[in-house]
Design the sequence.
């Protein structure tokens, strides 16, 4: 019978290599695919943005692909697109991330280009201005998007102004308009470097060759200026109700974001919180919230909860798109469910179902190279160990109903939360 | 090199159900699709959006699996399920760990004939669907697409959106929905596809067992409202709140089975970036329209595409204008690029690149059983699964003369509809508040 290469990735088929300059490379072969994917991150996210230049790291990340000292814009993209390949760099809160895909035979091209854009970007004037216009246009479009405006308003309310999480990674129209080319160049020189960089390669490649390629193109990279990631400011738990509405004329639907700063992926009670979230707003047709808001009351097309996790206290949120006339009913239904999960133990059957769900869905998550690469990236980033997937079911099954209640109580409350609403002005309705 | 599993086998049960099976053993998962040959194309005025609403009702329970039960059962087994409604079809799928696929087979057999359409659930879902449309209405481009398509199709049902017109969502009844279900949901109007880690003979036997006894339905009503020849360019302006302008240009394109379809697909790659079934998109920064519109700083993004359809549809071009640019200028630049295309300027190098891109994208698309199963069912609906299987061969057969000739024939001004989205301040907008 066939051996499934998608048997759980683990220490016996993932190779991990640390280069002398601090880059960590992880490779897993999959010869059932013709493609290879490469993904990873560098420690140069918008945490480093100066308060008056929010959006800088993200601007830098996008500008990396606009030309290097060795290749202009057209050359880079002709190499990629002419081979049916892709490579994207993007700014995040903690990191600049990258992801690429090609046929297996074109991995050398992907790694060569990746090294070039990371190490020797040129930030050509004309390209910087073109990109600036694209970012500003996209920010203006997003300012017309109720989901984006509700999420943005939520962050500004839920986190104190000096906390990076209160801001937008992509900045604002005002800050992006003011960022100079010199700032891009300086940010790259002072923050982008190999220490702590992760490179994950999965697909139709030979492990030793893949590692040798990374060593060849990135192993000699040094940046003595590269700082350690800054510590995040202390964050006091939310102890009141904060509510703000953004009026957006001409919209048909309102978006709601209700939640709190949640646990990071490193939190002791992460697994318990994750199960609580699954129960609250994911399992089945979007959990208890989906059942109450959508299925029973028909108040929304989408309503669910999301636990972001990550390297810091990212939001734990309930998100819903509702008829503007139904906002209060939807909010009170959501709060009822938050009250329930923070006061009542989860029943035995519901707990068993949710555990079966999050352990049982692993094979589907690992079907594609992208899925495997994303999983390996998380295993390395959050120091879970290469045997994490082998231990995973045990970790999940060890969580008790009491653990879930405690985690829910620690973060969520029906009496202390942030609520952001974006949508039309009901009082102006005809 | 990669093993993409065996060839597809095709079977037709006595009740008319078409079954396509492809065993692929790269991962311990199976994707199961049941596609009904009904979509917005089959809808009458007054009942627009009915196919999509029926799709929602298929998740609202049967005697065997009351509402909400399957959501939990499938999630508990680590599977996913969902559905989609389009112009020409309504399709349902489950992708499950291979050992759990029987639940999916049972669920689809059951709801092919036993969906309840409980009146209270119909009313509850009415507001959910209205909310879905309201969410779409929040996007300026939704209005632009809806208005432009309505102008492009005066007669053919492709003129309305799959979600339907708001007025119909308010007035349709439970009986309308149930009649639609009973008319179109039958084995002789369905295509079932499994791709994944199974034994073909065993799978076929189980399908026979579960689906073979479902009685066939009567022949479905034909779609006869052919779009008449377009008599000149049509233009549309949508004026709503917003802070960006968009241009959407739609040329008449042939149905998927037409010999010109693959030629135009390659023109699409040259014009606006690579395309192939199931392939993850790659960038389009070397395409003609990117160079003409984005590099000149008239636009911030441009895309184009065709949709494989039963009846002739559209070759669509969508442009997001850069902040501060006038639509007249962007339209003029687009028109100049189209004129160059029509003059026969596509080169051998551009054609070769488009074919190479398609080969890579097509290979990416075969790495997920869910994607493969969809494309088999989808192409079987408008012609045969071999349309998808032989996709690259069809492309290879296209010559430079073919693409030049097709470009000059299809990209005619008289055969297009041009839509502009013009943002206006709130008080300038008519109608609703």
Sequence:
């Amino acid at each position: 019978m066939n051996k499934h290469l998608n048997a759980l990735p683990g220490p016996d088929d993932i190779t991990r290599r640390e280069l002398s300059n601090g880059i960590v490379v992880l490779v897993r072969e999959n010869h059932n695919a013709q493609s290879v994917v490469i993904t990873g991150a560098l420690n140069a996210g918008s945490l480093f943005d100066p308060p008056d230049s929010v959006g800088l790291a993200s601007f830098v990340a996008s500008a990396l692909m606009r030309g290097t000292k060795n290749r202009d814009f057209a050359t880079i993209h002709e190499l990629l697109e002419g081979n049916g390949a892709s490579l994207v760099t993007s700014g995040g809160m903690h990191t600049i991330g990258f992801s690429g895909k090609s046929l297996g035979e074109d991995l050398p091209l992907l790694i060569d280009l990746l090294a070039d854009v990371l190490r020797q970007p040129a930030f050509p004037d004309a390209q910087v201005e073109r990109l600036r216009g694209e970012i500003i246009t996209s920010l203006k479009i997003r300012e017309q998007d109720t989901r984006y405006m509700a999420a943005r308003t939520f962050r500004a309310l839920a986190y104190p102004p000096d906390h990076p999480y209160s801001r937008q990674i992509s900045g604002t129209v005002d800050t992006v308009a003011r960022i100079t080319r010199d700032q891009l160049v300086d940010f790259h020189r002072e923050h982008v470097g190999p220490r702590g960089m992760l490179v994950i390669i999965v697909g139709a490649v030979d492990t030793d060759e893949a590692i040798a390629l990374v060593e060849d193109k990135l192993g000699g990279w040094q940046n003595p200026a590269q700082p350690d990631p800054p510590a995040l400011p202390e964050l006091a738990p939310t102890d009141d109700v904060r509510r703000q509405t953004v009026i957006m004329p001409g919209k048909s639907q309102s978006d709601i974001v209700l939640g709190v700063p949640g646990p990071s992926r490193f939190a002791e009670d992460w697994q318990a919180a994750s199960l609580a979230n699954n129960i609250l707003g994911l399992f089945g047709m979007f959990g208890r919230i989906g059942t109450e808001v959508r299925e029973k009351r028909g108040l929304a097309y989408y309503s669910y909860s999301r636990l972001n996790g990550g390297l810091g206290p990212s939001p734990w949120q309930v998100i819903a798109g509702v008829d503007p006339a139904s906002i209060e009913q939807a909010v009170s239904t959501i709060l009822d469910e938050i009250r329930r999960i923070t006061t009542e133990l989860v029943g035995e059957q519901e707990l068993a179902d949710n555990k079966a769900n999050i352990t049982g869905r692993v094979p589907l998550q690992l079907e594609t190279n992208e899925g495997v690469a994303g999983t390996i990236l998380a295993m390395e980033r959050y120091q879970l160990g290469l045997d994490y997937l082998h231990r995973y079911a045990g970790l999940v099954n060890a969580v008790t109903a009491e653990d879930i209640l405690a985690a829910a109580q620690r973060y969520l409350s029906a009496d202390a939360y942030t609520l952001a609403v974006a949508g039309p002005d009901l009082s102006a309705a005809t | 090199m990669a093993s993409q599993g065996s060839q597809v086998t095709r079977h037709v049960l006595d009740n008319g159900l078409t079954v396509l099976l492809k065993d692929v053993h790269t991962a311990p998962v199976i994707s199961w699709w049941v596609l009904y040959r009904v979509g917005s194309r089959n809808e009458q005025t007054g009942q627009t959006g009915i196919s999509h609403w029926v799709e929602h009702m298929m998740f609202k329970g049967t005697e065997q699996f009351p509402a909400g039960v399957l959501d939990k059962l499938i999630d508990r087994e680590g599977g996913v399920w969902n559905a989609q409604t389009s112009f020409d079809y309504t399709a349902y799928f489950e992708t499950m760990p291979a050992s759990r696929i029987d639940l999916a087979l049972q669920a689809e057999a059951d709801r092919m004939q036993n969906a309840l359409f409980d009146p209270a659930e119909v009313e509850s879902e009415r507001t959910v669907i209205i909310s879905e449309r309201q969410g779409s209405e929040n996007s300026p481009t939704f209005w632009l697409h809806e208005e432009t398509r309505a102008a492009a199709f005066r007669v053919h049902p492709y003129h309305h959106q799959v979600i339907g017109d708001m007025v119909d969502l308010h007035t349709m009844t439970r009986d309308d929905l149930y009649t639609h279900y009973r008319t179109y949901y039958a084995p002789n109007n369905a295509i079932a596809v499994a791709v994944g880690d199974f034994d073909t003979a065993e799978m076929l036997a189980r399908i026979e067992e579960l689906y073979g006894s479902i009685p066939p339905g009567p022949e479905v009503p034909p779609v006869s409202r052919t779009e008449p020849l377009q008599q000149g360019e049509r233009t549309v302006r949508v004026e709503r709140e917003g802070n960006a302008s968009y241009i959407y240009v739609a040329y008449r394109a042939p149905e998927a089975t037409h010999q010109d379809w693959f030629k135009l697909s390659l023109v699409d790659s040259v014009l606006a970036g690579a395309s192939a079934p199931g392939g993850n998109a790659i960038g389009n920064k070397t395409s003609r329209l990117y160079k003409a519109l984005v590099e000149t700083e008239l636009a911030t993004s441009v895309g184009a595409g065709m949709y494989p359809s039963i009846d002739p549809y559209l070759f669509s071009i969508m442009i997001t204008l850069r902040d501060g640019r006038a639509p007249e200028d962007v339209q003029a630049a687009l028109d100049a690029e189209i004129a160059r295309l029509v003059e026969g300027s596509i080169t051998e190098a551009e054609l070769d690149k488009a074919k190479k891109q398609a080969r890579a994208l097509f290979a990416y698309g075969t790495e997920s059983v869910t994607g493969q199963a969809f494309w088999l069912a989808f192409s079987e609906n408008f012609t045969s699964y071999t349309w998808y299987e032989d996709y690259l061969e069809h492309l290879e057969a296209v010559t430079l003369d073919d693409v030049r000739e097709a470009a000059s024939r299809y990209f005619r001004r008289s055969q297009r509809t041009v839509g502009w989205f013009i943002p206006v301040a709130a008080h300038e907008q008519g109608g609703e508040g």
Observations:
- Chain A touches chain B through 75 residues (CB under 8 Å).
- Residues 61 and 90 of chain A are 5 Å apart (CA to CA).
- Chain A has two domains: 15-218, 241-428.
- The two ends of chain A are 67 Å apart (CA to CA).
